[in-house]
Request: fold
Amino acid sequence: MLNDFFDGWKKFPSKEKHFKSLQNSEFKILAIDDVTNKVIGFINAISDGVLSAYIPLLEVIPDYKNKGIGTELIKRMLEKLKHYYMIDIMCDESLQSFYGKFGLIKSSGMILRNYDKQN
Ligand SMILES: CC(C)(COP(=O)(O)OP(=O)(O)OC[C@H]1O[C@@H](n2cnc3c(N)ncnc32)[C@H](O)[C@@H]1OP(=O)(O)O)[C@@H](O)C(=O)NCCC(=O)NCCS
Reply:
């Protein structure tokens, strides 16, 4: 059911790895097209179970974008995470206004990416 994700990634995880990363995530929400039975969007979150949660990925596949699915996924995830002190997402600057609509604020951070492990 997991096709067409990681749009635009140079190297991307296999469907098996995508599935495993969802399985291992404490929280995950899937959007499924009832007619095709395809997953058309997903969001996941990992956490320490007490104070902090991190949302690594949110994606809606191209044919289903701009229909409110991404909005619904982030809203539902933030509702699940509302008891945590810190809820973090890293995103491109262009997406800051999107996340701003849900109460997230701009911050600064540092990241490390091992691109040879991307897939
Ligand atoms: C970001 C994303 C999840 C939004 O999903 P969606 O179902 O299309 O979102 P919605 O229909 O609920 O809302 C669309 C809004 O997102 C905005 N948006 C989507 N992609 C954007 C981008 N790259 N930069 C800025 N704004 C973006 C649209 O302009 C629109 O804004 P509006 O409501 O003010 O018109 C989707 O575009 C996607 O999967 N993008 C690629 C992966 C990605 O960037 N994920 C976020 C990782 S942090």
